[in-house]
Amino acid sequence: MPTVYFVIPCYNEEAVLPETVKELTKVLEGMEEQGLADQKSRMLFVDDGSRDQTWKLISKYHGENHWVSGLKLSHNRGHQNALLSGLMTAKEVADCAISLDADLQDDVNVLPQFVEKYQEGCDVVYGVRNKRETDTFFKRTTAEGFYKVMQKLGVDIVFNHADYRLMSRRSLEALSEYKEVNLFLRGIVPLIGYKSDYVYYDRHERFAGESKYPLKKMISFAVDGITSFSVKPLKIISNLGILVSILSVFGLLYALISHFTGNAVSGWTAIVCSIWLLGGIQMLCLGVVGTYVGKIYSEVKGRPRFKIETLLDDNTDKICGDKHQ
Predict the structure, then answer these.
(1) pLDDT tens digits, the chain, 325 residues: what are they?
(2) What is the number of domains present in the chain?
(3) Deepest in the core among 100, 152, 154, 238, taking most CB within 10 A?
């Protein structure tokens, strides 16, 4: 039987942890009975610098429930880095790892299907939503638009897939070779290229607590995804610059002809509008270029993407206080 790790990033999740541990314990016990997970399997909760009682609860459940392991980051590093830290930790002891959120919105009843496909030879198994009826109209529209834009920009991304996926140890080893500071795992994982498959599920309402992805974070996440995997925005800017330059030449010719034929008319409004239009285009272009330059700045510094303060896991037979990557 394989050793399966559930990797669960947590940020201020004290409201959902009791129910999450309860439900995932049932799942692991059932998978053990079906021969899909051995006794060394764990649910690894990654505390991403929570300010509530999340880590205290994780430590408590670790002492009471042999299925529970915990990983505490030294400070908040964001969902993607927290998830990566859990995956890299699981890589050392697990045959495969399944990443999922702590809020029980991802249907945990399909978890055995992930492992079944792994046993059939798949290195990566993506959890894909059947529909988005639980989302608001705004979130559904913007999310679907994001996936379409990413695909148009040439990014190999799985439609309606978030971070609910299984990865084998081999694929995790491959993932560890990607050293980006600006992480966008939904785009990185398909680049690995090993055999993959899909598990389809319906997403539930959040069990308790508040969403950790308000509009501001969603926009930031989308920008990170686009600028981390495509240079097409830069090409669009170049083409826009060429187009504006051509239009400016025609405008200049028109102005000269009007001047020499005596048809020039004072056009204060037109001049002001033109200045604002070109100024706006320049600012937009500089903003996009600046985003890419900022990412280059982050990458060349080569700072650790996360630092582990404490690791509670019986399989490692130690408490780690200095691991980082």
Answers:
(1) 899 999 999 999 999 999 999 999 999 999 999 999 999 999 999 999 999 999 999 999 999 999 999 999 988 888 889 999 999 999 999 999 999 999 888 899 999 999 999 999 999 999 998 876 666 666 767 777 777 777 777 677 788 888 899 999 999 999 998 887 778 888 889 888 889 999 999 887 765 555 555 556 666 666 666 666 666 777 777 677 767 767 766 666 766 676 667 665 666 556 756 776 677 677 777 777 877 777 776 667 565 666 676 787 777 654 344 444 5
(2) 2
(3) 100
E strands in the chain: 4-10, 42-47, 68-73, 96-99, 124-129, 161-168, 196-201, 308-312
224 with 90, same domain: the answer is yes
- Same-domain check for residues 61 and 186: yes
Kindly tell me the sign of the dihedral angle through the C-alpha atoms of 21, 25, 31, 36.
positive
